[in-house]
Amino acid sequence: MATLAGLGVGGVVGGITGALIGVGIPEYEAKRYEGRLTKGGILISIHSDKTQDIAHAREIMERTGGEDISVSAEETPRAAKTAS
């Protein structure tokens, strides 16, 4: 559902930026990512609940020349918050 919401925002902000915002990436980061993507960059997203996997993924990205590597926690979807 968030992706669909992002596509709606995309008409106003920009296709890639809107989609990224729709999945929870802050607008300033989404715009920066879109700029890098339009210049031929690659955006990779990795999901893991295990801290050691996150550290390992980061190490691999750094070792292979990754740039602008960031780690963030996911927010609990609103529907899940209200159901608890």
List keywords for this structure.
84 residues; mainly alpha; 2 domains; 5 helices; flat; disordered N terminus
Cα distance, first to last residue? 20 Å
Largest pleated sheet: none
Q: N-to-C SSE series?
A: HHHHH
Total number of strands: 0
Radius of gyration: 15 Å
- Share of residues in strands: under 5%
Q: Kindly state the percentage of residues in helix.
A: 55-70%
Stretches where pLDDT is under 50 for at least 5 consecutive residues are 1-13
Please tally the helical runs, counting DSSP H or I stretches of 4 or more residues. Answer: 5
Q: What is the typical, i.e. mean, pLDDT? A: 76
Q: Structural class, judged by helices and strands?
A: mainly alpha
Total domain modules = 2
The geometry reads as flat
Would you kindly provide a written description of the structure presented here, covering whatever features stand out?
With 84 residues, this protein is mainly α. The protein folds into two domains: 1-42, no CATH class; 44-75, no CATH class. 61% of the residues lie in helices and 0% in strands. The chain is built from five helices and no strands. The protein has helices at residues 2-13, 15-22, 27-38, 51-63, 78-83. Helix 1 (2-13) packs antiparallel against helix 2 (15-22) and helix 2 (15-22) crosses helix 3.
Architecture blueprint of SSEs:
Blueprint: H1 2-13, H2 15-22, H3 27-38, H4 51-63, H5 78-83
Helix pairs in contact: 1-2, 2-3
